[in-house]
Amino acid sequence: MIEPGTRLAGRYRLEERISDSGGSSLWKAIDEILARAVAVRTFDPEFPRVGEAVTSARAASRLTDPRVTQVFDADDSGESAYVVSEWVAGETLEQMLAKAPLEPGRAATLLYEAAEAISAAHAAGLAHLCLSPRDLVWTTGGTVKLLGVATDAVLRDRYSDEPAAEDVRGLGRMLYAALTAHWPGDEDGSGLPAAPAGDDGVPQAPRQVQAGISHAIDAIVCRCLGIGAAEPITEPAELAKALRGVPRTPLPLFAGLGTAAPSPRPAAPKRPATPSTAATTQPHQPPVQDPTRPAQPQDARGPGRRGRGAHAQHGQHAQQHAQPAPSGQVPPPRGRYDTPPPAPPGNATTVAAHARKPANRALLGIAAAALTVIVGLGAWALSGGGSDGDKGAAGKKTDQGQKSQPPKPATVKLKIQDASATQSPADQHPDGTSRKNPSAVIDGDPGTVWETQTYTSEQFGNYLKALGVTLTLGTPAKVSTIKVSCPVSGGTLQVRIGSSRAPGAMKAIGEQSCSRGELTFAANPAVQGQYVLVWFTRLPAGLKGKLNEISVNGTAG
């Protein structure tokens, strides 16, 4: 019998059972070799799809998108089959929405990241099919994680003849929920309130449920869910492209995106304004988060497939238990010189305290007068009162302060000197096609295309590990953003920056899946270098890499 303390494969020590669902159990465990927390799913002996679950987990382990939960290990050769994946700490979308809907710009950003992750999974032949607000996590490290790709479909016995369209509908439901805090799907998909529906059972459009949602975002949700007569979105990459075209708000650097309205602050008694009371007034603070609200666990999962409905408790991964630190309600402070209550007669100590009050006010008046004199002298010195040789120390310090803050250099489009093909390994199976026209990516003509030859697999037929172009800037610069126009869908595109042409000496600043449009890679903070490498680490579905235009922005020097 599997119980806390059990070791699997001699290294994974089970610590705490998080959930039991559908013939499997989720555990928080410790990898004793690497000394890190991991999520381990074990299976009941009678679970009918153990082999399929392990196979799907192994397939998910090959996904490289950092927004997909990483699978570390999967085995069914011993007495106890198991799947080991990363332990994700943060807050699920459902937990965020228990407070209030998200601001539309943040909802668009969060679901854009999820659509990109699902697009990368579909490019690798995997799907989710069970998407709900419990599967999207904003981690304590400030990143987006999508749980259950490939494995959830097996665990819940889900199948679909149109996996891409099914996942688009799942993403559309999540976006609807993020905007309205209502769930437009099946009751077992989320604990959020059901979305209002018309007489035909079709959910109302988000703008009919929640104010402040733009027509553009509302139209995207309706196209995903088949609300109205607009052309439906059927591909995750198409959804990501649509969300890329609407205003998006950057996500904060901590878990927890709820926008609950603050509770009303009790009004402070009115009193005459004085320097002391103004100095001690505190800004309004957000309300204290209710510590009694139970955390909603979430499932840590990996690969996917298809749709029939078996009942399994969805999304209970304790990795999601971590909540954002509550912020305290700061009451209005008491004025420093509030008048105390009158002292009872005969109390010598209290009478003496009252006698000191006029003295305190006299000292305050002297200090105010001195401050006025100092400010006047400073203004006189700055306005040129007196000769250059007679300026005081205050004037000199002001001049020094002004000279020590030069204007920030403006970010501009950097000049690219040339472009050349680059591959890894450099000396193995040269791709002749890719070397014919690398300058096409910097010629300013979107109609010209740099492309690779066609391979037999997404991994370059096992000949290469990566293939792309290296741009040489006119001078070394601090690179902040790189924009890449990619006319194909799928695959994985990586960008590196460095002061050397060698790919291993460059710093990787990001990876994205192509989606027939412009991708933006941001280096924050900016990276110093003269060379920018843009290459495919996995080929698109057509097994041929293509690039149109690449531009680089930053500051010279």
Automatic annotation (TrEMBL):
<dbReference type="InterPro" id="IPR011009">
    <property type="entry name" value="Kinase-like_dom_sf"/>
</dbReference>
<feature type="compositionally biased region" description="Low complexity">
    <location>
        <begin position="312"/>
        <end position="328"/>
    </location>
</feature>
<feature type="compositionally biased region" description="Low complexity">
    <location>
        <begin position="270"/>
        <end position="283"/>
    </location>
</feature>
<dbReference type="GO" id="GO:0005524">
    <property type="term" value="F:ATP binding"/>
</dbReference>
<feature type="compositionally biased region" description="Pro residues">
    <location>
        <begin position="329"/>
        <end position="345"/>
    </location>
</feature>
<dbReference type="GO" id="GO:0004672">
    <property type="term" value="F:protein kinase activity"/>
</dbReference>
<feature type="region of interest" description="Disordered">
    <location>
        <begin position="386"/>
        <end position="447"/>
    </location>
</feature>
<feature type="region of interest" description="Disordered">
    <location>
        <begin position="254"/>
        <end position="350"/>
    </location>
</feature>
<dbReference type="InterPro" id="IPR008979">
    <property type="entry name" value="Galactose-bd-like_sf"/>
</dbReference>
<feature type="compositionally biased region" description="Basic and acidic residues">
    <location>
        <begin position="388"/>
        <end position="400"/>
    </location>
</feature>
<protein>
    <submittedName>
        <fullName>AMP-binding protein</fullName>
    </submittedName>
</protein>
<feature type="domain" description="Protein kinase">
    <location>
        <begin position="12"/>
        <end position="254"/>
    </location>
</feature>
<keyword id="KW-0675">Receptor</keyword>
<dbReference type="InterPro" id="IPR000719">
    <property type="entry name" value="Prot_kinase_dom"/>
</dbReference>
